[in-house]
Amino acid sequence: MAEKLLYPPPLLSHEEVANDRAAFMDTLRRFHSLMGTKFMIPVIGGKEMDLHALYVEVTSRGGLAKVMEERKWREVMARFSFPATTTSASYVLRRYYLSLLHHYEQVYFFRAHGALLRPAASALTKTPRRKMRGTSDQSPAAAEAGKRMALPERLGGEPCSFSVTGSIDGKFEHGYLVTVKIAAETLRGVLYRVAPPPPAAAPPPPPPPPARGRRRRDPAQPRPNRSAYNFFFKEKHPELKATHPHREREYSRMIGDAWNRLAADDKMMYYYFPVGKLILELKLLVQFCVSLAALCLCSFQ
């Protein structure tokens, strides 16, 4: 079981640390080291915050709880020269006091000892809403648009919540004019409406693949010369189709085998097939004429 964290004893009195900044910073660093909490001097507007002055201003008014209950944060803020860019000084001061000085205050100002003490209820509860000057002419629609919500924060391990309200004062083409109230601070600004990014353009479709199939021949292009095997194939194909009608897939192989078995002298006729065909036709015509003449002579006799 983890041991319960206890306050360390004070090293100096409240008057000593309040009157000596060096003693205050030394005891504050040792206090956070003994407590095992992180200590770092806040930087606002490029300058380190004067934690000693903050501690003195708050404790001189009775401590954090009393400052919260009596609404004296504006008096504390007057001690500091915040830059113009710091629009929520009250919130910043309370945040760092809770995280860095609250427990230190319990030990050195209130002389607390033993178990850790949580911040007073006035430091943690929501600040009551108050009507601000110059807002009486706010339209009911804009007032109804305001939303109230708790803003939980972890300040040095302690929970803290603040009152946050907002209203829409106007509308223009690219956003809204808004007023936001955080605790006792009122902030006014512009809330821009970010347009959604345009959808990414679809990539162009890929080009269609080239059409497959037989390439059309140019009618004006002359036909290539046919080989001897082409003439042989053209002659044998009808013969195979008549003798083997169901073996069409084997015609090319059968004709090729027949061509290979063909004698060289017989192949010569197909190398000169056009001329040989003409000579053969002439021989047939001569034979027909001779036969016809012989028949005519026989009939006269």
From TrEMBL:
Membrane spanning stretches: none
Stretches for region Disordered: 125-156, 195-228
DNA-binding region(s) in UniProt: 222-270
Residue ranges with Pro residues bias: 195-211
GO CC terms: nucleus
A Gene Ontology molecular function term of the record: DNA binding
Alphabetical list of InterPro entries matching this protein: ARID_dom, ARID_dom_sf, ARID_HMGB9-like, HMG_box_dom, HMG_box_dom_sf
Organism of provenance: Oryza barthii
PANTHER family the record matches: AT-RICH INTERACTIVE DOMAIN-CONTAINING PROTEIN 2, HIGH MOBILITY GROUP B PROTEIN 9
Ranges where the HMG box domain occurs: 222-270
Protein name listed in UniProt: ARID domain-containing protein
